[in-house]
Design a protein that fits this description.
This protein is an all-alpha fold. About 85% of the residues lie in helices and about 0% in strands. It has a domain of about 80 residues: Chaperonin-like RbcX (Non-ribosomal Peptide Synthetase Peptidyl Carrier Protein, Chain A, Orthogonal Bundle).
């Protein structure tokens, strides 16, 4: 397992997600201040380009540099705010989810053993 590659890929996904969240934030702000521009940004963003945050921003810079810089600024703010909590939240969330998956699985196999009258503990081979 290449931990550095996993970290790099995760960072890219997170960066793209924060770009998406920044676009949502800016679009929401524009709905109140400049509805036609909000509609334009929504249309521009709905073409699937936003899956790659960096490519999306490159295209947005060519189309509307003011909006692009606004998205960049919001994305940077989000990154700073989220980074403080993210690591612990991810660790805790994964630990809790894994424990729940194990609990459900153990409950399921336990119910199968109890529900199968032909099963007896003497037949166990493990």
């Amino acid at each position: 397992m290449d931990i550095k590659k996993v970290a790099k890929d995760t960072a890219k996904v997170l960066t793209s997600y924060l770009t998406y969240q920044a676009v949502r934030t800016v679009t929401g702000q524009l709905r109140e201040a400049n509805p036609p521009l909000a509609i334009w940004l929504s249309g521009f963003s709905s073409t699937g380009k936003i899956q790659d945050g960096e490519a999306y921003l490159q295209e947005l810079l060519q189309e509307n540099k003011e909006l692009a810089f606004r998205v960049i600024t919001v994305r940077e703010y989000l990154a700073e705010e989220v980074a403080e909590y993210l690591l612990e939240m991810v660790r805790t969330g994964i630990q809790q989810a894994n424990m729940e998956h194990r609990r459900r699985y153990l409950g399921k196999i336990t119910q199968l053993e109890i529900a199968d009258p032909s099963f007896s503990p003497e037949q166990r081979t493990d």
